[in-house]
Write a structure and sequence with these properties.
Blueprint lengths: L1 E6 L4 H15 L2 E3 L10 E2 L4 E3 H5 L7 E6 L3 E3 L2 E4 L1 E3 L5 E5 L15 H17 L18 H6 L6 H8 L14
Parallel strand pairs: 1-2, 1-5, 4-6, 5-9
Antiparallel strand pairs: 3-4, 6-7, 8-9
Helix pairs in contact: 1-3
């Protein structure tokens, strides 16, 4: 079973969309009650949260996706959209830099789609996938929001074949942004 762990306030519409969509992809997904983001993971100089610090404070009894609206960074990176334990049980995404208004764009489902892409990407790592060279694959590394927008929310055939050895996934449905 997969659990979603909101950290602090998180857009409820995005949470519901992710819960519903990820349930279609991976099977049962359970939404946990929000918890506070760990204060000790905040870097005052950077005004960002250190993602690895948060990642290892997430529950690990199930596969858990932490979601925050705070800005995050990782070692050697100015910011990140997410981080995961490769072949582990924990992943985290930040919605902070996924918001269309940050780039002067309208929403129209874009915020939810970006959130899904980041969640799928981090789950890929949890299930053992590394970054893909296919720019359309959700496992392609996003250097910017433009990379995120260009890639699909699904795994390419090569990544799907690797995943199928570990888990059953369903990618054959239309997204519903209601």
């Amino acid at each position: 079973m997969i659990t979603i762990q909101p950290l602090g306030f998180v857009n409820s519409s995005v949470l519901k969309f992710l819960e519903k969509t990820l349930s279609k992809v991976f099977g049962k997904v359970k939404m946990l009650n929000p918890i506070e983001i760990p204060k000790e993971c905040y870097n005052k100089l950077r005004r960002q949260y250190f993602s690895t610090c948060i990642l290892f404070r997430l529950p690990s009894n199930n596969i858990t996706l932490g979601i925050t609206e705070h800005d995050m960074y990782a070692n050697n990176l100015n910011f990140i959209f997410g981080e995961a334990e490769l072949n582990g049980k924990r992943a985290i995404i930040s919605l902070y830099r996924l918001k269309p208004e940050l780039y002067g764009q309208k929403d129209d489902g874009l915020f939810k789609l970006r959130s899904l892409k980041e969640a799928m990407h981090e789950f890929g790592h949890v299930f053992g996938l590394k970054h893909c060279e296919n720019k359309r694959c959700v496992m392609y590394f996003s250097n910017s929001i433009f990379d995120t927008d260009f890639k699909d929310w699904k795994y390419c055939q090569k990544c799907r074949a690797l995943l199928s050895k570990k888990i059953n996934i369903n990618l054959e449905f239309d997204l519903e942004f209601d």
